């Protein structure tokens, strides 16, 4: 929709018609009067027309409505001439005219002047109404566009573009912050005077309500929050009411942006605080528990080692090893989390056999899975995939350890593979506590643990699956979880793209 803002102020100037159009309307009005005169004269021969001149009044009214004052006066003169030739006797003899002829002169002139003035006023009022309606539609659309921004940080750029398009000039937006005025957006090209200088001058004089040309104060709740600077204006004068409305809406938009950014900042700070608390709680628990077991076992061996039997010493040594390995896994995951946060994951995708990844992960978790029944497919029949084998292997290790942790001893843990939708999907199916639908959507969040796992009966810190998700996505793959419901086990799936060499071969066979 074209901008209605760059219009003359409604009612400020009369609507001027082109001279050629006025001349055309005058000629048409005179011709219509002539035709009407001939018709009235023929009618007067057939029937008795007592006041034929009154029949010319509608023609004069029509000329006033459609043409204006000059065509209506032309119609009035033409009507007077027609009446004089056709009905007055003798023609054009005003000194000897009867009162009827003088009445016709005054009626024609009065109707022409009054109706043309009323018609002109009506046209101006209609034009004003149309301009105001167009202006309100534009302002409404302008407000909708700047209010529909999803990302608050994009508001200044969109606002500058909308103002530049609507006002037809360059626009620069400045907001007040701790370091003074800061330019947040600009659109168009300014002239010799830099916009920052005008903005700073207007900002310094804001307390005195002084006006600086081409600048408008952005306000929120009456308090100034910034300055908008306009470049050289177009030739037509701008409607000040429209500009004021746009500047008020702009101030509200920038205030909403600031509020949204502050809310987002507060949300991020609250999330960071929660994460910090979770990290401290996890460290205090997951470091203290294995260390306490190690220290207790070592102390027992130091004090009572000589009098302990071989089975007791072996059990204490096994406890020390298991708790040390548990501590090593926890520290490794914390280091992985640090690498992820720092963006230091450098995936190296390559064609790899799925069987190599699966067998390597099973070997690493052999001791953890010793108390479960392992079911594994023959992965040699699966095609090769394009991924980073180290990252996928470590992610699979974390998933298998998680399955062993949440499945009862003696239950089955299955490692399955299938080809689906142009990719290989590797799935780990356990027989554990299962997942609610909400848990399946949040299970990969850092420090998140399912409701049944958060009671303290299952050791863990909620980092394994989060690290797995980061590794899988860094390797260019997908990971997701599902479950038939609580108590019915869970399944974790890794979708890996087919190797490029395989894809090229398939395309060649298809050709």
Report on this structure.
By secondary structure, this protein is α+β, with helices and mostly antiparallel strands. It has 4 domains: 19-142, no CATH class; 152-260, GAF domain (Beta-Lactamase, 2-Layer Sandwich), CATH 3.30.450.40; 265-341, Helix Hairpins, CATH 1.10.287.130; 346-509, Heat Shock Protein 90. Helices cover 56% and strands 14% of the residues. It has a 5-stranded mixed β-sheet. Strands 2-1-4-3 form a 4-stranded antiparallel β-sheet. β8 and β9 (423-429) form a beta hairpin. α9 (354-364) packs across α10. The two termini are 50 Å apart. Residues 1-15, 91-95, 453-457 and 507-511 have low confidence and may be disordered.
Task: Return the string of H and E elements.
Answer: HHHHHEEHEEHHEHEEHEEHHEEH
The outline comes out as: elongated
- β-sheet strand percentage: 5-15%
Main sheet summary: 5 strands, mixed
The count of β-strands is 11
CATH superfamily of the largest domain: Histidine kinase-like ATPase, C-terminal domain
> Mean pLDDT score, rounded?
76
For the record, the CATH class of the largest domain is: Alpha Beta
């Amino acid at each position: 929709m074209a901008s209605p803002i760059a219009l003359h102020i409604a009612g400020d100037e009369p609507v001027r018609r082109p001279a050629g159009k006025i001349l055309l309307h005058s000629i048409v009005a005179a011709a219509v009067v002539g035709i009407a005169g001939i018709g009235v004269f023929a009618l007067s021969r057939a029937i008795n027309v007592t006041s034929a001149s009154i029949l010319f009044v509608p023609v004069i009214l029509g000329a006033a409505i459609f043409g204006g004052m000059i065509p209506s006066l032309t119609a009035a003169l033409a009507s007077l001439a027609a009446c004089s030739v056709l009905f007055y006797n003798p023609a054009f003899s005003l000194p000897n005219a009867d009162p009827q002829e003088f009445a016709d002169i005054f009626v024609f002139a009065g109707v022409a002047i009054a109706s043309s003035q009323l018609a002109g006023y009506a046209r101006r009022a209609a034009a004003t109404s149309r301009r105001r309606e167009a202006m309100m539609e534009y302002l409404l659309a302008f407000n909708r566009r700047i209010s529909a921004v999803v990302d608050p940080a994009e508001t200044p750029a969109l606002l500058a573009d909308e103002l530049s398009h609507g006002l037809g000039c360059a626009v620069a937006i400045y907001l007040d912050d701790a370091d003074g005025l800061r330019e947040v957006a600009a659109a168009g090209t300014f002239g010799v005077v830099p916009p920052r200088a005008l903005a700073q001058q207007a900002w310094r004089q804001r307390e005195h309500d002084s006006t600086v040309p081409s600048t408008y104060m952005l306000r929120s709740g009456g308090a100034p929050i910034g300055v908008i600077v306009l470049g050289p204006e177009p030739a037509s004068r701008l409607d000040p009411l429209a500009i004021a409305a746009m500047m008020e809406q702009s101030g509200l938009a920038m205030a909403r942006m600031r509020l949204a950014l502050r809310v987002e900042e507060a949300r991020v700070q609250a999330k960071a605080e929660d994460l910090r608390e979770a990290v401290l709680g996890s460290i205090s628990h997951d470091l203290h528990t294995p260390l306490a077991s190690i220290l207790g076992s070592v102390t027992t061996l130091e004090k009572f080692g000589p009098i302990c039997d071989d089975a007791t010493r072996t059990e204490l040594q096994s406890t020390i090893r298991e708790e040390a390995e548990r501590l090593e896994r926890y520290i490794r995951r914390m280091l992985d989390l640090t690498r992820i946060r720092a963006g230091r994951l450098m995936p190296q995708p390559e064609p790899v056999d799925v069987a190599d990844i699966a067998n390597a992960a099973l070997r690493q978790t052999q001791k953890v899975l010793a108390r479960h029944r392992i079911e594994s497919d023959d992965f040699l029949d699966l095609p090769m995939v394009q991924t980073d084998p180290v990252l996928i292997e470590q992610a699979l290790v974390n998933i298998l350890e998680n399955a062993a942790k949440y499945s009862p001893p003696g239950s089955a843990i299955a490692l399955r593979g299938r080809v689906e939708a142009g990719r290989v999907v590797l799935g780990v199916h356990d027989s554990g506590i299962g997942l609610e639908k909400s848990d399946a959507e949040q299970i990969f969040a850092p420090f998140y643990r399912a409701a049944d796992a958060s009671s303290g009966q299952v050791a863990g810190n909620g980092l394994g699956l989060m690290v797995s998700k980061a590794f899988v996505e860094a390797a260019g793959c997908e990971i997701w979880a599902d479950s038939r419901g609580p108590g019915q086990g869970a399944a974790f799936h890794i979708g890996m793209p087919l190797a490029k060499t395989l894809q090229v071969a398939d395309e060649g066979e298809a050709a």
